[in-house]
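Please review this one.

:::
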Amino acid sequence: HIGNTGISYLYQRYYKFFETMSKMYDPPASFEGKVTPYPAAAKERDARGRAIDPVGYLNELEQRGREKAVAIEIVKLARQDVIHCYRKEGVNHYENCKDVVKKYIDLIQAPDYGAVKPE
């Protein structure tokens, strides 16, 4: 036997579940802004070949790694878009998925998958 509080609790869980499920069909959110390049470390080296600004050099390496990871994830998402388009369009994918495939090919052919470079 479930009391009144048990029923209201189940109703709240049921409502919360379907509230999140309905958001599944919303268009995906995306960033349409311009990404600015990050500052590069000084290229000068000392007599031993080490960076003059080691902190700036390490910060640049870390940022370059983050940008590359983001670029790889963008390529993965673009590939999923291609797969989804192929499955949705079926035999007509040659005509209807040209723009999606072109975007994917441009991404994978760009150096470092189009990752932002330092300025």
In short: Residues 54-89 form the longest helix (36 residues).
